[in-house]
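look at this stuff:

>
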Amino acid sequence: MTESTSLRLSVVVPVRNEAGNIAPLVAEIAAACAPLAPFEIIYVDDGSTDATPAALAAARAAHPMLTVLRHRESCGQSAAVRSGVRAARGDLVATLDGDGQNDPAFIPRLVAALDAAGPRAGLAQGQRVGRKDGRLKGLQSRIANGVRSRVLRDATRDTGCGLKVFRRAVYLALPYFDALHRFMPALVAREGFAVVHVDVVDRPRMSGRSNYGLFDRLWVGLLDLAGVWWLIRRRRRVPDLAAEGS
């Protein structure tokens, strides 16, 4: 059996200007996922202008399972995640933010939760406890999550958590748009798959400052929320296909 067929898990990390966080987080991911080997780590550098490319090159030399992709200019977090998922070789994809706030130690728990839920489960969504965001960002996030939950009824407390494990094929079937990663529970359910939830402990950022997260702000995401509501309303029954004679 070749590596491409035996490899089950791909860990995708979008980063922009996170030079100081690369080495420690890659080492943590490698240690946390060791029981799930073989696996791969895919970092997508979303047009960084700091020393992130050099830090990724050094990390790749130390960790042979690491692949590095680069956007020549920043296209946003959703685009970086999509580039990583499209390049992934695993049937399961784990994502986490590149600032170190998401603890990779929870990846095996998310994988186990998705496995336990069976093949009709498409997503294991992390839900943060003990948030380490500042007061303003935390308030914005709570308001946005509350409005989203009321409108979409997606039964998810915290869709903004970057820690997720999902089936690659399910993700690639979702309609793509900017900020897709913040509406995945509702869209996965729209495709007829179950969503399971796992509480994960939030951590302080390792170093630097936030480069993503604008969609925590309610007024930026209202058009996306309306679009996802429309997509869910327009959903039709998912065909259950069977070959003739089976």
Notes: Strands lie at 9-15, 39-46, 66-71, 92-95, 121-129, 164-167, 194-201. The chain has a mean pLDDT of 84.
